[in-house]
Write a structure and sequence with these properties.
The chain is of the alpha/beta class. The protein has eight helices and five strands. Strands 3-2-1-4-5 form a five-stranded parallel β-sheet. Helix 1 packs across helix 2 and helix 5 crosses helix 6. The termini are close together.
Amino acid sequence: MIVVDTNVIGYLFLSSEHSRLAELALEKDSEWAAPILWRSELRNVLAVYVRKDLLTLLQAQRIMSGALEQLRGREYEVSSYEVLRLASESKCSAYDCEFIASANDLKVPLVTVDKQLLRAFPTVAVSLKSFAQLRGQA
C-alpha cells in the first residue's frame, strides 16, 4: 500500500506528462490510499476542466467514479492535531500535511510530485518518478 496525493490520482485519470508514471506506480502497487480530502481536491480539478471545456460534465463524473473505485476502502480520516503539528513544523499547507499524516499513520510512503513535501518530509515522501522507476525492484 502507498498513500498518493491528489496530483498522482489526477495523473492516472487525466492525460498529462506524468500519466505514464502514475500508471507505472499503479502497476507497482495497486493499493492506493489517501485522506478523504483527496475527493474535494479532485472534484475541484475536474470542475476547472469542465469550466474550461476540457471535459464534459459526464466525463468528469466518470473520472470521479473511477477514482472513487480506485481508492474504495482506503480513504482515511486524519488527526487534526497531527496535521496541525506537521504544518507548524514545516512550510507545507495543512492540506498537504493531511497526506503526510495518512502515510505516517499507515506506515507507508507518500508518492507525490510536490517538491515542497519531498523536501520537508524526505523520510515519508517519495517522488512519483523515483517510485515508478523502482517498479521492477519491488
